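input
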Amino acid sequence: MIKLTGLKKAFGAKIITNGLDLEVNDGEFLAVIGRSGEGKSVLLKQIIGLLTPDEGSIEFNGKELTTLGEQERDEIFGMCGYVFQFAALLDSITVFENIGIGLLEDGIPEKEVRPIVAEKIQCVGLAEDVIDKYPSELSGGMKKRVGLARTLMRSPSTILYDEPTTGLDPISVRRIHELMHKTHKETNATTIVISHDVEIFNYADHVAMLYGGKVVYKGPSKNIWECDNEFVHQFIRGLPEGPIKHTL
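output
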Protein backbone atom coordinates (compact mmCIF):
# COMPACT_ATOMS: atom_id res chain seq x y z
CA MET A 1 0.00 0.00 0.00
CA ILE A 2 1.05 3.58 -0.69
CA LYS A 3 -0.21 5.95 1.98
CA LEU A 4 0.22 9.73 1.85
CA THR A 5 -0.67 11.75 4.92
CA GLY A 6 -0.63 15.52 5.32
CA LEU A 7 1.63 15.97 2.31
CA LYS A 8 2.76 19.55 1.71
CA LYS A 9 4.98 20.97 -1.02
CA ALA A 10 5.61 24.56 -2.03
CA PHE A 11 7.91 26.31 -4.48
CA GLY A 12 8.58 29.71 -3.00
CA ALA A 13 5.26 31.30 -2.14
CA LYS A 14 3.30 28.94 -4.40
CA ILE A 15 1.74 26.06 -2.47
CA ILE A 16 1.30 22.96 -4.64
CA THR A 17 0.20 20.16 -2.31
CA ASN A 18 -1.45 21.37 0.86
CA GLY A 19 -2.15 18.69 3.45
CA LEU A 20 -2.88 16.00 0.87
CA ASP A 21 -4.09 12.56 2.03
CA LEU A 22 -4.33 9.53 -0.27
CA GLU A 23 -4.20 5.74 -0.03
CA VAL A 24 -3.50 3.41 -2.96
CA ASN A 25 -3.93 -0.31 -2.36
CA ASP A 26 -1.61 -2.98 -3.71
CA GLY A 27 -2.57 -3.89 -7.26
CA GLU A 28 -4.91 -0.92 -7.63
CA PHE A 29 -5.19 1.02 -10.90
CA LEU A 30 -5.77 4.65 -9.91
CA ALA A 31 -6.38 7.54 -12.30
CA VAL A 32 -5.54 10.99 -10.90
CA ILE A 33 -7.38 13.90 -12.51
CA GLY A 34 -7.45 17.65 -12.02
CA ARG A 35 -6.80 20.93 -13.80
CA SER A 36 -3.48 21.78 -15.40
CA GLY A 37 -1.17 23.25 -12.78
CA GLU A 38 -2.97 21.49 -9.94
CA GLY A 39 0.15 19.58 -8.88
CA LYS A 40 -0.53 16.11 -10.26
CA SER A 41 2.97 15.61 -11.63
CA VAL A 42 4.47 17.10 -8.48
CA LEU A 43 2.50 14.52 -6.51
CA LEU A 44 3.97 11.65 -8.55
CA LYS A 45 7.48 13.02 -8.17
CA GLN A 46 7.07 13.15 -4.40
CA ILE A 47 5.87 9.54 -4.35
CA ILE A 48 8.82 8.36 -6.42
CA GLY A 49 11.38 10.46 -4.54
CA LEU A 50 12.26 12.92 -7.31
CA LEU A 51 10.94 15.67 -5.03
CA THR A 52 11.02 15.79 -1.23
CA PRO A 53 7.84 16.97 0.52
CA ASP A 54 8.14 19.92 2.90
CA GLU A 55 5.86 18.19 5.37
CA GLY A 56 3.89 14.99 5.67
CA SER A 57 4.32 11.26 5.42
CA ILE A 58 4.87 8.87 2.50
CA GLU A 59 4.55 5.17 3.33
CA PHE A 60 5.32 2.23 1.06
CA ASN A 61 4.03 -0.99 2.61
CA GLY A 62 4.30 0.48 6.09
CA LYS A 63 7.78 1.95 5.64
CA GLU A 64 8.03 5.70 6.12
CA LEU A 65 10.14 7.00 3.22
CA THR A 66 10.89 10.40 4.71
CA THR A 67 12.81 8.81 7.61
CA LEU A 68 14.62 6.01 5.76
CA GLY A 69 18.27 6.11 4.85
CA GLU A 70 19.36 6.54 1.25
CA GLN A 71 20.06 2.85 0.67
CA GLU A 72 16.67 1.74 2.01
CA ARG A 73 14.87 4.36 -0.09
CA ASP A 74 16.78 3.26 -3.18
CA GLU A 75 15.70 -0.34 -2.58
CA ILE A 76 12.03 0.71 -2.47
CA PHE A 77 12.32 3.02 -5.48
CA GLY A 78 14.08 0.20 -7.33
CA MET A 79 10.74 -1.63 -7.27
CA CYS A 80 9.00 1.35 -8.90
CA GLY A 81 8.76 2.36 -12.53
CA TYR A 82 8.14 5.89 -13.81
CA VAL A 83 6.87 6.59 -17.32
CA PHE A 84 7.56 10.21 -18.21
CA GLN A 85 5.10 12.45 -20.04
CA PHE A 86 7.21 12.70 -23.20
CA ALA A 87 8.93 9.30 -22.79
CA ALA A 88 12.29 10.96 -21.89
CA LEU A 89 14.25 8.92 -24.41
CA LEU A 90 17.88 9.76 -25.15
CA ASP A 91 18.06 10.83 -28.80
CA SER A 92 21.70 9.93 -29.30
CA ILE A 93 21.30 6.21 -28.56
CA THR A 94 19.18 3.45 -30.08
CA VAL A 95 15.92 1.99 -28.84
CA PHE A 96 17.86 -1.03 -27.60
CA GLU A 97 20.21 1.16 -25.58
CA ASN A 98 17.35 3.31 -24.25
CA ILE A 99 15.41 0.28 -23.01
CA GLY A 100 18.38 -1.69 -21.75
CA ILE A 101 20.32 1.22 -20.31
CA GLY A 102 19.94 0.15 -16.68
CA LEU A 103 21.27 -3.36 -17.25
CA LEU A 104 24.00 -2.16 -19.60
CA GLU A 105 25.20 0.35 -17.01
CA ASP A 106 25.29 -2.47 -14.47
CA GLY A 107 27.85 -4.17 -16.70
CA ILE A 108 25.62 -6.95 -18.06
CA PRO A 109 26.87 -8.00 -21.53
CA GLU A 110 24.90 -6.75 -24.52
CA LYS A 111 24.30 -10.29 -25.77
CA GLU A 112 22.44 -11.05 -22.52
CA VAL A 113 20.50 -7.77 -22.48
CA ARG A 114 19.31 -7.93 -26.10
CA PRO A 115 16.85 -10.86 -25.70
CA ILE A 116 15.36 -9.21 -22.60
CA VAL A 117 14.87 -5.96 -24.51
CA ALA A 118 13.34 -7.87 -27.42
CA GLU A 119 10.86 -9.49 -25.02
CA LYS A 120 9.82 -6.13 -23.55
CA ILE A 121 9.45 -4.63 -27.02
CA GLN A 122 7.06 -7.45 -27.86
CA CYS A 123 5.18 -6.89 -24.57
CA VAL A 124 4.40 -3.29 -25.52
CA GLY A 125 3.24 -4.21 -29.01
CA LEU A 126 6.17 -2.98 -31.06
CA ALA A 127 7.80 -4.80 -33.97
CA GLU A 128 11.22 -6.21 -33.18
CA ASP A 129 12.80 -4.24 -36.01
CA VAL A 130 12.55 -1.01 -33.98
CA ILE A 131 15.27 -2.29 -31.64
CA ASP A 132 18.12 -0.65 -33.57
CA LYS A 133 16.29 2.51 -34.58
CA TYR A 134 16.78 5.92 -33.00
CA PRO A 135 14.00 7.85 -31.22
CA SER A 136 13.88 10.36 -34.07
CA GLU A 137 12.68 7.54 -36.33
CA LEU A 138 9.68 6.75 -34.12
CA SER A 139 6.18 8.22 -33.89
CA GLY A 140 4.92 9.77 -30.67
CA GLY A 141 2.95 6.66 -29.76
CA MET A 142 5.93 4.41 -30.42
CA LYS A 143 8.10 6.54 -28.15
CA LYS A 144 5.55 6.14 -25.36
CA ARG A 145 5.69 2.37 -25.82
CA VAL A 146 9.48 2.39 -25.71
CA GLY A 147 9.31 4.40 -22.48
CA LEU A 148 7.03 1.77 -20.96
CA ALA A 149 9.26 -1.06 -22.20
CA ARG A 150 12.20 0.58 -20.43
CA THR A 151 10.14 0.81 -17.24
CA LEU A 152 9.19 -2.88 -17.44
CA MET A 153 12.82 -4.01 -17.64
CA ARG A 154 13.09 -4.36 -13.87
CA SER A 155 9.60 -5.85 -13.36
CA PRO A 156 8.38 -3.04 -11.08
CA SER A 157 5.68 -3.68 -8.49
CA THR A 158 4.52 -0.06 -8.82
CA ILE A 159 4.23 1.91 -12.08
CA LEU A 160 3.59 5.65 -12.23
CA TYR A 161 2.52 7.27 -15.52
CA ASP A 162 2.79 11.03 -15.94
CA GLU A 163 0.19 12.02 -18.59
CA PRO A 164 1.19 9.20 -20.95
CA THR A 165 -1.25 10.19 -23.73
CA THR A 166 -0.28 13.87 -24.02
CA GLY A 167 0.11 14.95 -27.66
CA LEU A 168 -1.32 11.77 -29.16
CA ASP A 169 -4.22 11.39 -31.60
CA PRO A 170 -7.42 9.66 -30.36
CA ILE A 171 -6.54 6.28 -31.88
CA SER A 172 -3.08 6.31 -30.28
CA VAL A 173 -4.61 7.44 -26.98
CA ARG A 174 -6.85 4.38 -26.93
CA ARG A 175 -3.96 2.08 -27.81
CA ILE A 176 -1.85 3.46 -24.96
CA HIS A 177 -4.77 3.10 -22.53
CA GLU A 178 -5.29 -0.48 -23.65
CA LEU A 179 -1.56 -1.14 -23.27
CA MET A 180 -1.54 0.23 -19.72
CA HIS A 181 -4.60 -1.87 -18.89
CA LYS A 182 -2.98 -4.99 -20.39
CA THR A 183 0.25 -4.32 -18.48
CA HIS A 184 -1.68 -3.89 -15.24
CA LYS A 185 -3.60 -7.14 -15.72
CA GLU A 186 -0.45 -9.09 -16.58
CA THR A 187 1.79 -7.71 -13.82
CA ASN A 188 -0.76 -6.73 -11.13
CA ALA A 189 1.52 -3.76 -10.47
CA THR A 190 0.08 -0.94 -8.40
CA THR A 191 -0.62 1.65 -11.10
CA ILE A 192 -1.10 5.41 -10.80
CA VAL A 193 -1.87 7.37 -13.97
CA ILE A 194 -2.07 11.15 -14.34
CA SER A 195 -4.53 11.89 -17.12
CA HIS A 196 -6.78 14.58 -18.59
CA ASP A 197 -8.53 12.09 -20.86
CA VAL A 198 -11.93 10.92 -19.60
CA GLU A 199 -11.48 7.64 -21.49
CA ILE A 200 -9.12 6.56 -18.70
CA PHE A 201 -12.24 5.93 -16.60
CA ASN A 202 -12.89 2.83 -18.75
CA TYR A 203 -9.64 1.26 -17.56
CA ALA A 204 -8.92 2.47 -14.00
CA ASP A 205 -10.31 0.87 -10.83
CA HIS A 206 -10.60 4.19 -9.00
CA VAL A 207 -10.38 7.90 -9.69
CA ALA A 208 -8.89 10.55 -7.41
CA MET A 209 -9.33 14.26 -8.08
CA LEU A 210 -6.96 17.01 -6.96
CA TYR A 211 -8.06 20.55 -6.26
CA GLY A 212 -6.53 23.21 -4.06
CA GLY A 213 -3.60 20.98 -3.20
CA LYS A 214 -5.79 18.22 -1.75
CA VAL A 215 -7.63 15.10 -2.84
CA VAL A 216 -11.25 16.25 -2.97
CA TYR A 217 -12.59 12.92 -4.16
CA LYS A 218 -11.63 9.26 -4.51
CA GLY A 219 -14.07 6.62 -5.67
CA PRO A 220 -14.78 3.85 -8.19
CA SER A 221 -14.32 4.76 -11.83
CA LYS A 222 -17.25 2.62 -13.02
CA ASN A 223 -19.83 5.08 -11.71
CA ILE A 224 -17.82 8.30 -12.05
CA TRP A 225 -20.39 9.85 -14.40
CA GLU A 226 -23.07 9.45 -11.73
CA CYS A 227 -20.80 10.86 -9.01
CA ASP A 228 -22.46 13.66 -7.03
CA ASN A 229 -19.18 15.24 -5.90
CA GLU A 230 -19.49 18.83 -7.14
CA PHE A 231 -15.81 19.11 -8.13
CA VAL A 232 -15.87 15.90 -10.16
CA HIS A 233 -19.24 16.71 -11.72
CA GLN A 234 -17.97 20.06 -12.99
CA PHE A 235 -14.53 18.90 -14.09
CA ILE A 236 -15.34 15.83 -16.15
CA ARG A 237 -18.11 17.68 -18.00
CA GLY A 238 -16.06 20.84 -18.56
CA LEU A 239 -18.72 23.05 -17.03
CA PRO A 240 -17.95 26.77 -16.55
CA GLU A 241 -20.05 27.01 -13.38
CA GLY A 242 -19.17 25.27 -10.14
CA PRO A 243 -16.71 25.26 -7.25
CA ILE A 244 -13.63 25.07 -9.50
CA LYS A 245 -12.31 28.56 -10.13
CA HIS A 246 -10.91 29.33 -13.57
CA THR A 247 -7.58 30.94 -14.28
CA LEU A 248 -6.44 31.36 -17.89
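quick obs: Strands lie at 2-11, 14-24, 29-33, 55-60, 63-64, 80-83, 158-162, 190-194, 206-211, 214-220.
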